[in-house]
């Protein structure tokens, strides 16, 4: 059996499903999921789905523990031009989020301007592929809002 979290959102939020997915993923990583009005969740136990391999994160499934990742768990790989700068900004963003907690991305997005949103910041925390200008805007906002970070 495998556990699956199903989150159901009201139809008016359908356009923001990617944002909701990123929010749920980030929240579960932090160990806290806060759902708003009209949002429902359910934890389902699913049987093995013939031909589909389902691996539980604890590694207790029939296939044993998952293969060791190339990167340490929770680490994001940055490659190519600007990888060092992206890594530095990513680490600063993680430290900022760890210190200031849930709800801290909105003020950072406002401080950054330039079309930066909390959704983009969540995508950055998840290691999304963002343009270098976006990473630099995040870095500038962090420098202004959290200079000792």
Largest sheet: 2 strands, antiparallel
Order of helices and strands: EHEHHHH
**How confident overall, as mean pLDDT?**
75
* Strands, total number: 2
Strand order within the widest sheet?
1-2
Task: Explain how this protein is built.
The protein has 149 residues and is mainly alpha-helical. 42% of the residues lie in helices and 9% in strands. It is built from five helices and two strands; from the N terminus they run βαβαααα. The chain has helices at 17-30, 83-100, 105-112, 118-125, 132-145, and strands at 2-8, 40-46. The chain has a two-stranded antiparallel ribbon with strand order 1-2. Helix 3 packs across helix 5 (132-145). The longest helix has 18 residues, at 83-100. It is globular and about 45 Å long. It starts with a strand and ends with a helix. The relative contact order is 0.14.
Pick out its properties.
mainly alpha, 2 strands, 149 residues, two-stranded antiparallel ribbon
Q: Quick recap of the structure?
A:
The chain is mainly alpha-helical. It contains five helices and two strands; from the N terminus they run E-H-E-H-H-H-H. The protein has a two-stranded antiparallel ribbon with strand order 1-2.
């Amino acid at each position: 059996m495998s556990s699956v979290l199903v989150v159901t959102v009201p139809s008016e939020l359908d356009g923001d499903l990617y944002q909701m997915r990123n929010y749920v993923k980030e929240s579960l990583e932090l160990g806290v999921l806060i759902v708003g009005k009209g949002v429902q969740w359910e934890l389902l136990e699913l049987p093995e789905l013939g031909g589909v391999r389902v691996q539980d994160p604890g590694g207790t499934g029939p296939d044993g523990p998952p293969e060791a990742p190339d990167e340490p768990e929770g680490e994001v790989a940055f490659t190519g031009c600007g990888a060092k700068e992206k890594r530095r900004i990513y680490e600063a963003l993680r430290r900022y989020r760890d210190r200031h907690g849930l709800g801290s991305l909105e003020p950072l997005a406002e401080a950054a301007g330039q079309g930066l949103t909390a959704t983009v910041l969540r995508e950055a925390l998840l290691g999304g592929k963002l343009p270098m200008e976006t990473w630099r805007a995040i870095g500038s906002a962090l420098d202004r809002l959290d200079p000792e970070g």
